[in-house]
């Protein structure tokens, strides 16, 4: 990383996931968030193609460090089409993670802003996410408010 914080921030831009990002540490970055076992090149290509068919209804963004070529942050948003509220849409933000060596550079906020703006541009009336109690303060700084209770049922 460069010495000045403003120059460091300029090295990072948010963009959509590309097929070549697997070789830039995308899977390893996801492993900092949760269980993400080995993904072969073929599995990655297959899932990438499958998600590409969703168009703007499922977007994965990344931030690549222009200096190192490494993916240092990511997140996704998918658009749920509803019948309620006059057939409205809701954005769901998922899988936001910043590399442990790049934290403190506001990259997480850049990712969340990008995903939130995408949901708004798709006509969503709201965007929601689930997070740990430890991450609540971060998302509040991004403009989110705690609402309701998350429930989960795991199948594995």
Description:
This protein is of the alpha+beta class. It is 31% helix and 24% strand. It has helices at 5-10, 26-30, 41-52, 84-87, 107-121, 136-141; strands spanning 12-16, 58-65, 71-81, 89-98, 126-129. The chain has a five-stranded mixed beta sheet with strand order 1-2-3-4-5. The chain is globular and about 45 Å long. 22% of the residues are buried. The mean pLDDT is 94.
Rg (CA only): 16 Å
Structural class per helix/strand content? alpha+beta
Strand order of the largest sheet: 1-2-3-4-5
Which sequence of SSEs, written as H and E, runs from N to C?
A: HEHHEEHEHEH
Question: Main sheet?
Answer: 5 strands, mixed
Give the end-to-end Cα distance, rounded to a whole number of Å.
40 Å
Question: Kindly state the mean pLDDT as a whole number?
Answer: 94
- How many E-type strands? 5
Which ranges are low-confidence, i.e. pLDDT below 50, for 5 or more consecutive residues? none
DSSP strand content:
15-25%
Shape descriptor reads: globular
Work out the helix count: 6
Q: Helicity, in percent?
A: 25-40%
Oligomer: single chain
Membrane topology: Peripheral membrane protein
GO molecular function: glucosamine 6-phosphate N-acetyltransferase activity
Subunit structure: Homodimer.
Subcellular location: Endoplasmic reticulum membrane
């Amino acid at each position: 990383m460069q010495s000045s914080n403003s120059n460091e921030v300029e090295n990072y831009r948010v963009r959509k996931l590309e097929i070549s990002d697997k070789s830039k540490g995308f899977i390893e970055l996801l492993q900092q968030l949760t269980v993400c076992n080995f993904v072969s090149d073929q599995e990655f290509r297959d899932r990438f193609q499958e998600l590409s068919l969703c168009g703007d209804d499922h977007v994965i963004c990344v931030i690549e460090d222009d200096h190192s070529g490494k993916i240092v942050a990511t997140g996704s948003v998918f658009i749920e089409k509803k019948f309620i509220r006059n057939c409205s849409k809701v954005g769901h933000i998922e899988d936001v993670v910043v590399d442990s060596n790049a934290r403190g550079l506001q990259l997480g906020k850049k990712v969340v802003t990008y995903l939130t703006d995408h949901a708004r541009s798709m006509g969503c009336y709201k965007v929601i996410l689930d997070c740990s109690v430890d991450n609540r303060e971060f998302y509040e700084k991004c403009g989110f408010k705690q609402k309701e209770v998350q429930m989960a049922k795991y199948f594995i």
